[in-house]
Design a protein that fits this description.
- The protein has 434 residues and is α+β, with helices and mostly antiparallel strands.
- The chain folds into 4 domains: 96 residues; 89 residues, PAS domain (Beta-Lactamase); 68 residues, Orthogonal Bundle (Helix Hairpins), CATH 1.10.287.130; 159 residues, 2-Layer Sandwich (Heat Shock Protein 90).
- Helix content is 52%, strand content 18%.
- The strands form 3 sheets. Strands 2-1-5-4-3 form a 5-stranded antiparallel β-sheet, sandwiched between helices.
- The protein is elongated.
- Keywords: ATP-binding, Cell membrane, Kinase, Membrane, Nucleotide-binding, Phosphate transport, Phosphoprotein, Transferase, Transmembrane, Transmembrane helix, Transport, Two-component regulatory system.
- One of its GO terms (cellular component) is plasma membrane.
Length: 434
């Protein structure tokens, strides 16, 4: 910026001012008084401009400077120019910080910025979901006061960050996170947490899949091969036996198909890499579709089914997985509740969480079975499961879907009174309408 200020002009003006004062003092024969009055006037003028400057800097809401001439005009213009330049710099810096935060929010890993004493200075959205941090409530709090796993605390205090550590997620013990600490800048650290659950479980899932398939398919295949051998060896069987054989073989074939489909669904869920926070699921709409299917399944059962749904409550998640979890619990209640029972399906806010419940007045489940219900192929009553076509995989699918969404299945049941299957989603996963 060109500065037109000239010291020569400024000194010349002062000299002319005092010269005029001396001329007037000489004319009235009061030279000293004239110089004193001129000096006092000059001090008062400068003090007046200092007061104006103070009011403009501290009290005025105007960005533009006050009007003034001479050296004070140049001072006002200089300060105005500096303020404008600083505002431009602050705006550019603000845009840079905003772009940095937007980029950090899109990272596929949880990221936390720490100072030299491990106080939290910033964290991205995935850190709030995966590590259970609250922003900005947790700002300036020590990370080891929020993540208290002994291995993590030891990792911090050793200050040897060459190798990462693997520990359970603070929000979900069934998931494994890899933590890395990277120093940067002046005494700052970037903590990165990556979900490696799928990597460590892929091989185990494959082995379990093969073992489960071989175990569960053995019975229907034995039935099929037995009937086929009998028909081959004795082609002149009575028609009633042939009809029974074909009916049984058809039933076993359907069972095998259902079993394979559910095993594939379970395998897809366990190996899923979809991130739950990327898409919003319209749960009320999903439940409306399931309600239609439930009423069709209920034709022969005659249950009274009531849906109580908060139409405005949506969440982040994987729609296909959540649909599977909702439908499995609802269809189980229909299949295993004696005819003419009552079933209630609820979806709504409970405190600051989103909760789903299926309540029935069926036979109930003995307490010793509750802890094992989500195991693959576990059945309370195997005979009844075969009669209803159950595979023993439904609740296992529900368990893995909820694990993927940082939730877990809660089961309350009293024999002869009925059962309640429910789960809740944390407030971080609730989609807020803008």
């Amino acid at each position: 910026m060109y500065n037109p200020f000239s010291w020569v002009k400024s000194i010349t003006r002062i000299a002319l001012f005092y010269g005029l004062a001396m001329l007037v003092g000489w004319y009235f024969d009061a030279l000293l008084w004239a110089l004193a009055i001129a000096s006092t006037a000059l001090v008062l003028i400068n003090y007046y401009h200092l007061v104006k400057l103070n009011n403009w800097l501290w009290h005025s809401k105007k960005f533009t400077p006050p009007d003034a001439s001479g050296i004070w005009g140049y001072i006002y213009d200089g300060i105005y120019y500096m303020q404008r330049r600083n505002r431009i710099k602050r705006k550019k810096l603000g845009n840079l910080i905003r772009r940095f935060r937007e980029g950090s929010e899109s990272l596929p890993d949880a990221a936390v910025v720490l100072d030299a004493d491990w106080h939290i200075e910033w964290c991205n959205r995935l850190a709030r979901i995966e590590l259970g941090l609250n922003w900005p409530e947790d700002a300036e709090r020590r990370i080891d006061n929020l993540i208290r796993h002994p291995e993590f605390v030891k990792f911090l205090r050793n200050r040897n960050y060459d190798s990462p550590i693997e520990i359970e997620s603070p929000t979900n013990i069934s998931r494994v996170l890899e933590f890395r600490m990277m120093p940067y800048g002046e005494k700052h650290y970037l903590l990165i947490a990556r979900d490696i659950t799928q990597i460590s479980h892929v091989e185990q899932v494959r082995k379990d899949f093969v073992a489960n398939v071989s175990h569960e398919l053995r019975t229907p295949l034995t039935v099929l091969s037995g009937y086929l051998e009998m028909l081959k060896e004795s082609p002149e069987m009575p028609q009633s036996f042939i009809d029974k054989a074909f009916d049984e073989m058809g039933t076993q074939s359907t069972r095998m198909q259902s079993l394979v489909e559910q095993l594939l669904a379970l395998s897809r869920i366990e190996a899923s890499t979809e991130r739950v926070y990327e898409k919003v699921v319209n749960v009320p709409q999903v439940l409306r579709t399931i309600e239609i299917e439930a009423q069709s399944l209920n034709k022969n059962k005659g249950h009274s089914i009531e849906f109580e749904v908060d139409e405005g409550l949506q969440i982040y998640g994987v729609e296909t997985e959540l649909r599977s979890a909702f439908s499995n619990l609802i269809f189980n209640a229909i299949n295993y509740t004696p005819n003419g029972g009552k079933i209630k399906v609820c979806w709504g806010k409970e405190q600051d969480r989103a909760r789903f419940k299926v309540i029935d007045n069926g036979e109930g489940i003995p307490e010793e079975h509750l802890s094992r219900l989500t195991e693959r192929f576990y059945r309370v009553d195997k005979a009844r499961s075969r009669k209803t076509g159950g595979t023993g995989l439904g609740l296992s699918i529900v368990k893995h879907v909820l694990s993927h969404h940082n939730s877990k299945l809660e089961i309350n049941s009293d024999v002869g009174q009925g059962s309640e299957f429910s789960f809740a989603f944390a407030k971080q996963i609730i989609a807020i309408k803008e």
